[in-house]
TrEMBL record:
<dbReference type="InterPro" id="IPR001611">
    <property type="entry name" value="Leu-rich_rpt"/>
</dbReference>
<dbReference type="InterPro" id="IPR029495">
    <property type="entry name" value="NACHT-assoc"/>
</dbReference>
<dbReference type="GO" id="GO:0005524">
    <property type="term" value="F:ATP binding"/>
</dbReference>
<dbReference type="Pfam" id="PF17779">
    <property type="entry name" value="WHD_NOD2"/>
</dbReference>
<dbReference type="InterPro" id="IPR043136">
    <property type="entry name" value="B30.2/SPRY_sf"/>
</dbReference>
<dbReference type="InterPro" id="IPR003877">
    <property type="entry name" value="SPRY_dom"/>
</dbReference>
<keyword id="KW-0433">Leucine-rich repeat</keyword>
<dbReference type="InterPro" id="IPR013320">
    <property type="entry name" value="ConA-like_dom_sf"/>
</dbReference>
<dbReference type="InterPro" id="IPR051261">
    <property type="entry name" value="NLR"/>
</dbReference>
<dbReference type="InterPro" id="IPR032675">
    <property type="entry name" value="LRR_dom_sf"/>
</dbReference>
<dbReference type="Pfam" id="PF00622">
    <property type="entry name" value="SPRY"/>
</dbReference>
<feature type="domain" description="NACHT">
    <location>
        <begin position="98"/>
        <end position="232"/>
    </location>
</feature>
<dbReference type="GO" id="GO:0005737">
    <property type="term" value="C:cytoplasm"/>
</dbReference>
<dbReference type="InterPro" id="IPR006574">
    <property type="entry name" value="PRY"/>
</dbReference>
<dbReference type="InterPro" id="IPR041267">
    <property type="entry name" value="NLRP_HD2"/>
</dbReference>
<keyword id="KW-0067">ATP-binding</keyword>
<dbReference type="Pfam" id="PF13765">
    <property type="entry name" value="PRY"/>
</dbReference>
Length: 953
């Protein structure tokens, strides 16, 4: 039991710790720490989902973009972790979980989850194997930055009731340190250069103490729970973290549950839920519990009374109403004043301006927390600031015992960004100042609103972490009359200016902006000021169904990306080639990949930067991508190296990956093999890359690993010889291989290699799937075509005595194969002699009677062909549209045909002993099953030539 161990501490110390933490955390104040009536945490707490894993690296997206992605996660299967089980190994994990890093955007519920964990322990309901819990928020540890402490001295600073506890050195004493709010840490946390210390009694700086505690030099038996916003999480070295988790926030049903718990007035919750759902931007933001509280505060006031003015539909309206309502409630509570929300006293105006200045200056510095000196610099009387604690939370140091200094922050980053935008707007209107301009020497000149907006757009686009994205949306929104009316009590003059120049400038930036992610926010900005002309064009484009006929400019591709990314639906398939656009247009569509289950990016000339973007998509916890086609992109080994950063992420959900025709060599294969272990990948296509035997040997070693889940590998045209086949034989013969399908068409296995692979096929214990055979159908063959068996056709001078059949071609020398090709991938080869042959595929409905184009392969909309001739070269044809294709000198007469029915691709290759030449790929959408077919013709040159034979291999 808990107290049966030979403890080095008194029972009184333990009881003091539990009682102190229970009294501290059993109540919660929504939105802030001291405002309003306390509510029992167990009553208000809505279960938050903590999920396993988290992407590595620094996240440079604004957190509102992360919310938008998370809002699409309806029905996604997640490996969830209960907050009380945070230190328990997950199924399959065979390691001790010492340090847990939990990520989550601002306001998502990280601190509440920590408090719930502490309360469950203090009440004796969970984790009773733990003896002490020490919550030490970073915002408080910042204030100890200049002092030096031993571990016990630091504990006694925050927990004086444990003064009799002299040591926690014993491994039998189970301790949890909780460091909440890494993103608020102002300590260096220099893991590389800080001195190493293992002495618990030595006095060292808090920074050095923390790094040694996290690394495990001090108290290696202690448990650590660190919480952080995503952007700051990378401060902790990955090797110091045993488990990364992420808090998801509210899903749609939990949003409704929150409002129905909050309001007992009949019908009010229904009205609020209906209104929230009517505005996509509001509905998305309610993913954050704090925003639910903001919305509830505003909408309860507005929908709960008759004759209400316009109910907020945009973020700017919601936040502006919230600011005014909180000011009104403050006056009512502290001064007994009852007035209209829009009417402000002089002291209200002064305080809002000062808080706005504080918000702006700290936003520029990237700070979310600030101290008394920061408030004093902005002229804020700290004693009056607590009146605004619904907006600016005041955390008094005495909350945890010896707290004498005060720490401040805004309830949520978005409130800080809104106040900063309000301050910027007021400085412009009241003082003719553009505070976003770094050079403010000539501020006497007349500042136009468009100049201010241009500065804000530039600032947002220059921000590496997106910290000014939401600020820009708020600033533009505050230019609309509906919001200016609300702020008229703060404005020295009131006038509405045209936004035409601003709109033109944003449209110009959309045309030129290199970052696809940044253009998404610019469309949010246009939406905030009700400019939707570009989006209307895109909606018309989507409704037209003529996607391939209409050429999209790059800025229209950005608009299309915005529309698809902000849609409620997850796409089953996104084919980049559905759009007729330039390479720049394709680049701007890349962000859409994360919202689709299947992405086809074949032949769009992906760059190294595109690979980095794709890697971020694969790392995203919100990505839905399970199938990715990157064929025909010439990525090379460097491109694969960049992709592997995403493939190796625990969040990568890929099950199918096509990297055929990408100039990969054995180095790229080695990188892939390192990623394959632990991946969900089941299908991998590496066809027509120069892997050679060295690459195949690396792949074979990976197949033997029990963690490899690959069931299908395509290695067609990869220069594999007997040596590579032998390596594959040993890999496939291992008990661990799960492979069902292996494509080695067009390689050079040699007799020994073929024998080895056939031995596997004949082994009933093996699970390889037979390749589909292609055989000629005699009931379709023209009477001048003589069939030898089911594989060879020869053109003759006389007619064959075939019986009549409705499927037979009557005029043209054509024949089809028996096999129906549908819904999967197929490869076959054709060898020919003579002068001319047509090789293709067709729907069954091609006409068989008469001399019209509807009977000839490649001359109608039911068939696709490759024309091969010694004298006339090569061309492809569909629906009588011919395209000449280049060929190597003295081309081989052995042709490879690869059909991916589902992806809509039909590829042709020339197969020579030295290498494989890709000559053309049709990209289309197949709507019916296909049948392979051939046509031969007599060509009149100097002499009459008849093709000798065509063989289907």
């Amino acid at each position: 039991g808990m107290l049966t161990v030979n403890l080095l501490f008194s029972v009184n110390a333990f009881l003091s710790n539990t009682c102190h933490l229970k009294s501290k955390f059993e109540c919660i104040h929504e939105g802030n720490a001291q405002q309003g009536n306390p509510i029992l945490l167990n009553d208000i707490f809505t279960e938050l989902i903590i999920t396993e894993g988290g992407s590595g690296g620094v996240n440079n997206e604004h957190e509102v973009r992360l919310i938008e992605e998370a809002s699409k996660n309806k029905g996604m299967q997640e490996k969830t972790i209960q907050y009380n089980d945070i230190f328990q190994p997950l199924p399959g994990q065979r390691k001790r979980i010492r340090t847990v890093l939990t990520k989550g955007i601002a306001g998502i519920g990280k601190t509440v989850s920590v408090h719930k964990f502490i309360l469950g322990w203090a009440e004796g309901k969970a984790n009773q194997n733990i003896h002490f819990v020490f919550p030490l928020p970073f915002r408080d540890l910042n204030l100890k930055g200049n002092g030096k402490y031993s571990v016990m001295q630091l504990v006694h600073q925050y927990f004086p009731e444990l003064k009799d506890l002299k040591s926690i050195r014993s491994e039998k004493v189970k301790i949890v340190f909780i460091f909440d709010g890494l993103d608020e840490c102002r300590l260096p946390l220099d893991f590389k250069n800080n001195e190493m210390c293992c002495d618990l009694a030595k006095k060292i700086s808090v920074d050095v103490l923390l790094t040694n505690l996290i690394v495990g030099n001090i108290l290696p038996s202690a448990f650590l729970w660190i919480t952080s916003r995503p952007a700051a999480a990378s401060q902790i070295p990955s090797e110091c973290v045993d488990q990364v988790t992420e808090i998801r926030g509210f899903n749609d049903s939990e949003k409704e549950q929150y409002f129905r718990k909050r309001f007992s007035v009949p019908g009010l919750a229904d009205k609020i839920v209906a209104h929230i759902k009517s505005s996509r931007s509001l509905h998305i933001m309610c993913h954050i519990p704090v925003f639910c509280w903001i919305s509830a505060t505003v909408l309860e006031k507005m929908l709960g009374r008759s004759g209400c003015i316009e109910v907020p539909k945009t973020l700017t309206q919601m936040y502006t109403h919230f600011l005014l309502i909180q000011t009104h409630l403050k006056n009512k509570k502290y001064h007994g004043m009852i007035q209209d929300e829009i009417d402000l006293t002089q002291s209200d105006k002064e305080m809002i301006i000062k808080l706005g200045k504080l918000a702006f200056l700290q936003l520029e510095k990237g700070n979310m927390i600030f101290y008394e000196k920061d408030l004093t610099e902005c002229g804020i009387d700290v004693s009056k600031a607590c009146e605004y604690s619904a907006i600016c939370t005041e955390i008094f140091r005495e909350e945890f015992g010896l707290y004498q200094e005060k720490v401040f922050c805004f309830v949520h980053l978005s409130i800080q960004e809104h106040l900063a935008a309000v301050y910027t707007q007021l400085q412009f209107v009241n003082s003719n100042m553009n505070i976003l301009r770094k050079n403010t020497e000539n501020q006497r000149e007349i500042v136009k609103m468009s100049h201010l907006h241009k500065s804000a757009v530039d600032r947002a686009l220059q921000s590496e972490n997106g910290h000014f994205d939401l600020f820009l949306r708020f600033l533009l929104g505050l230019s609309l009359e509906c919001n200016l009316v609300l702020l008229r009590g703060l404005l020295s003059k009131y006038s509405v200016e045209s936004l035409d120049e601003t709109v033109d400038y944003i449209k110009e930036k959309i045309r030129k902006e290199f970052s696809a992610e940044r253009t998404i926010n610019l469309f949010h900005c246009l939406n905030e000021i009700n400019y939707n002309a570009i989006l209307d064009e895109i909606h018309s484009f989507l409704k037209s169904g003529r996607h391939c006929e209409t050429e999209l400019k790059p800025d229209q591709c950005s608009a299309l990306a915005y529309v698809l990314l902000t849609s409620d639906d997850v796409m089953n398939e996104f084919d980049m080639k559905m759009c007729n656009t330039s390479l720049e247009g394709y680049r701007r569509l890349l962000p859409v990949v994360r919202t689709s289950r299947r992405a086809i990016l074949a032949g769009v000339n992906l760059t190294d930067e595109s690979c980095e973007t794709l890697a971020l998509v694969l790392q995203s916890v919100n990505s839905h991508l399970t199938e990715l086609d990157l064929s025909f992109n010439s990525l090379g080994d460097l491109g694969v190296k960049l992709l592997c950063a995403g493939l190796s992420s625990p969040h990568c959900k890929l099950e199918e990956l096509n990297l055929s025709h990408n100039e990969l060599e054995h180095i790229g294969v080695k990188l892939l093999c390192d990623c394959l272990m632990g991946l969900k990948l089941e299908k991998l296509d590496l066809s027509y890359n120069n892997l050679g035997d060295s690459g195949v040997k690396l792949l074979s070693a990976g197949l033997k690993n029990p963690d490899c889940k690959l069931k299908s590998i395509r290695l067609s045209g990869c220069c594999v010889t007997e040596e590579g086949c032998i390596a594959l034989h040993f890999a496939l013969s291992s008990n661990h291989s799960q492979l069902r399908e292996l494509d080695l068409s067009y390689n050079h296995p040699g007799k020994s290699g073929v024998r080895q692979l056939y031995a596997i096929l004949e082994d009933p214990q093996q699970r390889l799937k037979d390749a589909c055979e292609i055989t000629l159908d005699p009931n379709t063959a023209h009477r001048t075509l003589s069939l030898t068996g089911s594989k060879k056709v020869t053109m003759t001078k006389g007619e064959q005595p075939y019986p009549d059949h409705p499927d037979r071609f009557e005029y043209y020398a054509e024949a089809l194969c028996r096999e129906i090709l549908h819904g999967a991938r197929f490869y076959w080869e054709v060898e020919w002699t003579g002068n001319v042959v047509y090789i293709g595929v067709t729907y069954k409905g091609i006409n068989r009677k008469g001399r019209g184009r509807d009977c000839k392969l490649g001359m109608n909309n039911k068939s696709w062909i490759l024309f091969c001739s010694n004298d006339y070269g090569y061309y492809v044809s569909y629906n009588n549209k011919e395209t000449v294709v280049p060929t190597p000198p003295n081309p081989s007469k052995r042709m490879g045909i690869y059909l991916d029915w589902q992806a809509g691709r039909l590829s042709y290759f020339i197969i020579s002993p030295e290498r494989v030449y890709h000559i053309y790929t049709f990209h289309t959408t197949f709507t019916e099953p296909l049948y392979p077919g051939i046509r031969v013709e007599i060509m009149y040159l100097f002499t009459r030539q008849i093709p000798e034979f065509v063989s289907v291999l």
